[in-house]
Structures are given as structure tokens and as C-alpha cells.
Amino acid sequence: MGFEEKLPGGVLLSSVEALAGWARSSSLWPATFGLACCAIEMMATGAGRYDLARFGMEVFRPSPRQADLMIVAGRVSQKMAPVLRQIYDQMPEPKWVIAMGVCASSGGMFNNYAIVQGVDHVVPVDMYLPGCPPRPEMLMDAILKLHEKIKHEPLGERGRRALEQQGREVPALTGSNR
Ligand code: SF4
Description:
Bound molecules: iron/sulfur cluster
Helix content: 25-40%
């Protein structure tokens, strides 16, 4: 965000952190990005029956520059990995990633050279979602858990230290998925 760098520590920073966490978690805009069958469930989650609008999230953005959440819905092929990474890099900070389904989380049943064995080889993942495919209720549960995580994320120097401790770094693209 930037302004938190200028703030002194203590009560003021805690209040700003709480306010920023609440604002960020209440206004997540996902990137419009579906890769395979899991994307059908993601679309169903945004439609009338499940209604992501209840959480201020119905606006799936067609531009990564307007999105702060990437839901990786489906298996990631080696060919798609650099495209996915480019979209992630174009999203402004702060940003979060949900790996939706076993394929995105670990490659799932596609244990072969064509599929990335977990999207965390390409982008840092905040929430892993099991299932093949996960139902909309499961995606909503993951989103609500991510909201809680965002609400308690520290800002500024403390935030940087927390990310370092978690080892949450943007992975370097290696030969096969560059
Ligand atoms: S987890 Fe299942 S539903 Fe999702 S992309 Fe893989 S095969 Fe398709």
C-alpha cells in the first residue's frame, strides 16, 4: 500500500492494520481466469444460486491490473504456466492466490510431464482447496478463510518479516515452465 511504511509502530499501526485488513478482505476482486473443469464450479459460485456478491466479490475483472485475487481453477499445463505467471505479475500488490482443486494444488491425477505438479511452482499460493472438482460451497469456504487471513495480515516491515518467515516468495520459473 505504501503509506504504512511511514507510520510509527504501536497502537496507531495496529488500528490501521485492522482497518486495512477489513477493507482489503471486503473488496476482493478476482481475475477472470479459468483453466479447466474446476472453472465451471467457480462460475457457478459467482452466479445467482451461490451469489459471491454477498461478499463484495461478484466483479470478476477481465484485466489483471484491476484484480487482487487469482483463483487458479483447473490444471496448469507447462505451456500455460508462463501466461499464468505474467497475469500474476501484472496484478498490483497486495494480491492473493487460491489453488482450486487437486490439479491446481498438486497436479492431481495428471502425474505427467505436460502438467505443472502444483501451481505453487509458478506463483505463491495462499489457500489450497482439495476436491475434484471442489463444490461452490468449498470455494466459498476457502474464500472466507482467506478473508480471515487477510484481516490479520500485518503491514509494512512486520508484514515483510512475516512473509519471509512463511517462505512465501515468488518462485523463479525454471526450464520446463519458463
Ligand atoms: S481437479 Fe478435477 S475438476 Fe478440477 S481441473 Fe482437475 S480434473 Fe478437472
